[in-house]
Design goal:
Elements lengths: L3 H22 L4 E7 L6 H13 L5 E5 L6 H6 L7 H5 L5 H4 L1 E2 L5 E4 L3 H4 L5 H17 L2 E8 L3 H9 L2 E6 L3 H14 L8 E8 L2 H19 L4 E7 L2 H9 L3 H4 L4 H15 L9 H16 L1
Parallel strand pairs: 1-5, 1-6, 2-4, 2-5, 6-7, 7-8
Antiparallel strand pairs: 3-4
Helix pairs in contact: 1-7, 1-14, 2-13, 7-14, 8-14, 9-10
Length: 297
């Protein structure tokens, strides 16, 4: 009897040609995976507010809430989606039908257990899912994937498949240590991830710079990779107020210190557009993710 790993390898190989055709026929979104080494560092708030500021630069943004344990994006937006990615995987809905309208024209997608369910699909189900993926590239200039937190299989799998990773940490020593642990895991198997570090809840830019330099030095010395500096976000009580309002701080308090910092980071991201060959779109991201699943089973 064919085991699950062999079955998945066969399905992945059968779909490779279809994925290549899908990628070549559609415009390609920029896919950025946002992750953290531990929970409680403000990753989902960062994702939601970054999306707000990117949308204000005339980019069309879609968020995929891929935290399989918590639905943080919908809580931050104060909106409960009717459907999730599982409905697409099993053919009940299309990508367009599961996108939930958020503030300022942002759309977001609840992942549910969706991506992990890919491993259980038969060839026809996977083919249907892939054909829907090419449509998602048409809806977004930038797709932000908000992963779970910590060194879980889900977080590692999403990060391994990513072209670009934003790693969120805080100055707290355990957060810095866990961020480095995630970097180490991603560097295994000769992976050289494109990591941008975001330091949240800093007292000032000097503290943020100190944390970045610390992680930069150890990554360079012991892993022989260079991480990139994305920026810093200050501790701001307005963020706490906005959470209670279930509204992103960049909407509730657009002129606050933290909102200005988010604006600066969004400009840095839009100015740092990847080369065309790196801008591979969501369908290519899922192709890589399926190969990660294949290797792990």
């Amino acid at each position: 009897m064919m085991d699950q790993a062999e079955k998945l390898r066969k399905i992945v190989n059968e779909q490779n040609r279809q994925l290549e055709n899908s990628v070549s026929k559609t415009r390609k979104s920029r896919v950025i995976t946002i992750t953290s080494g531990k929970g409680g560092v403000g990753k989902s708030n960062f994702t939601a507010n970054l999306a707000i500021q990117l949308q204000r630069t005339d980019r069309k943004v879609v968020i995929i809430d891929a935290d399989l344990g918590l639905a943080n994006i919908e809580v931050i937006f104060g909106i409960v989606p009717q459907f999730n990615l599982t409905d697409v995987i099993y053919g009940r809905k299309s990508i367009a039908e599961i996108m939930t309208p958020g503030p300022l024209g942002i759309n977001f997608i609840s992942g549910g257990s969706g991506i992990q369910d890919l491993i259980h699909l038969n060839s026809q189900q996977l083919s249907n899912f892939i054909s829907n993926l090419s449509l998602l590239d048409e809806y977004a200039d930038i797709i932000l994937i908000d992963t779970g937190a910590g060194l879980t299989d889900s977080v590692i799998n999403f990060s391994k498949a990513a072209d670009e990773i934003i790693l969120v940490t805080t100055p707290e020593p355990t957060s810095v240590t866990d961020a480095y642990s995630l970097i180490k895991v991603l560097c295994k198997n000769n992976l050289i991830p494109n990591i941008k570090l975001l330091v949240n809840r800093v007292e000032d830019d000097e503290e943020g710079k100190e944390i970045f330099n610390k992680l930069y030095r150890v990554s360079k010395k012991f892993l022989n990779i260079e991480i990139n500096e994305l920026g810093y976000l200050p501790y701001d009580k307005n963020l706490i107020k906005s959470v209670k309002l279930q509204e992103p701080v960049c909407i509730s308090f657009p002129n606050s210190e933290i909102s200005r910092a988010f604006r600066k980071i969004s400009y840095k991201i839009t100015e740092d557009e990847p080369q065309e060959e790196m801008n591979s779109g969501f369908t290519s991201f899922v192709k890589r993710l399926m190969h990660v699943f294949e290797r792990n089973n």
